[in-house]
Amino acid sequence: MTEWDKKAEGALVYCKQSQEALDDGSYGDLRQATNLAINAYGSVMLEGHQCCTLMDPPYCVEMTYRSHDFCTPLLFLLFVLLFAFVAFKSCLNWLRQVRKKETEEAPMPKQTNQGAPQSAVDLERKLMAIWSASCLAGKGDASKELPHASEWGKAAASLFASLASQFDFQADSVCCQFEHLVSLWRSHACVVTDRAIQDEIDEKGALAFNKAIHHVAKVAEETVLKDALEDLHRDLTEGFHQWRKRLASYEEAEVPTQRERRHRGLLAAAKDDSAMQLVEISVYLLVWGEAGNVRFMPELLYFIMDLAIAAEGRG
């Protein structure tokens, strides 16, 4: 027996019951007969896929849903959301452009640059504060500072402030490079002291280790800043002096000799070798600090440094 035969038998049962109700003829029986007839067709034959209760065409209503019944509303909803997003994005961009235009048209406030020193004197004071806070100067404790630390600090701070005024170096860069100088100076002071102690031990033997430290500390402390500056100068400017020596081998370059350099430009005011070394170190650090990508081209950096050292007067 096929599926439809089974459905037909089930429907016939409902139909017979409906016929019996019609034969009775009462209102209640007519209502029951109608329900039975509807169930015979809709519930049994069509298994609830259609509801055929309408009095006029199409008589039956589809009770199942197909995919396209959902696609159309869904596509419409997506279109509405997309339109709303585009409209919101456009409004947001328009507001940004309006604000940007207002910002560009607004008068720029005058920069007072309150945080930066306004003169060589102010800059020198700031540099001296950096020096005083370093361990070379005892971090503000006069009893712990190295011998002649105050004189060296004043000389370095005054020189940096003077170079900043003469060549218009940026105050922030000057302070940064001064801290750089203090850090390098401190490191070389340690190296110089360690080397002096080791030389003393090599000379008198390991048994005199404690005595060597005590003796060297007394002797080296007096000149440790001067010796450290000499060491630092040799390390920093070795390439510069080799470049000048090689350039001097070309007569067309007309490079001044070392003796001639001592009587012109920044070196003319140097009283001794230590002062000259401090000038060359300071110029090197300040030029390097503002050189940008030029710092990766040593020859060009040395050329600018040589011009600065030989400069007469401002700029």
UniProtKB/TrEMBL annotation:
Pfam families: FKS1_dom1
Domain 1,3-beta-glucan synthase component FKS1-like residues, every copy: 277-308
Record keyword Transmembrane present: yes
Record flagged with keyword Transmembrane: yes
GO molecular function: glucosyltransferase activity
Cellular component annotations (GO), alphabetically ordered: plasma membrane
Transmembrane segments: 74-95
InterPro entries: FKS1-like_dom1
Keywords: Membrane, Transmembrane, Transmembrane helix
Recorded superkingdom: Eukaryota
Name listed for the protein in its UniProt record: 1,3-beta-glucan synthase component FKS1-like domain-containing protein
Species name: Polarella glacialis (Dinoflagellate)
